[in-house]
Amino acid sequence: MSTSITYAVVLEPQPEGGFTVTVPALPEVVSEGDTEDEALSMVREAIEVAIEVRRERGEDVPPPATTLLRHVSVAVAA
């Protein structure tokens, strides 16, 4: 029997193109892709591997973090 877990991911566009993706609940997971879809596909695979490795080591699989994303504006001198 399998179950589904949904993790929050952070997609960061890179200046040279593509995206870097991290997973706050699984800090060991960092992936990338040339497009958003590719980056999400790659991080999905990386999450699956991270969970498998944690289980093999007898480590806990963390629940999804309740990550909140907010934007904060600050004034900067010109």
Q: Supply the number of structural domains.
A: 1
Radius of gyration equals 15 Å
Largest beta-sheet characterization: 3 strands, antiparallel
* The CATH topology: Double Stranded RNA Binding Domain
The CATH class assignment is Alpha Beta
Distance between the termini: 58 Å
Overall morphology? globular
Strand content: 15-25%
Structure summary, number of beta strands: 3
The overall pLDDT, averaged over residues, is 93
Low-pLDDT stretches are: none
Count, helices = 1
- Topology as a string of helices (H) and strands (E): EEEH
Written account of the structure:
There is one protein chain. The protein has one helix and three strands, in the order E-E-E-H. It is globular and about 55 Å long. It has a single domain, classed as 2-Layer Sandwich (Double Stranded RNA Binding Domain). The protein is α+β, with helices and mostly antiparallel strands and 78 residues long. A hairpin with a 7-residue loop joins strand 2 and strand 3. The longest helix has 21 residues, at 36-56.
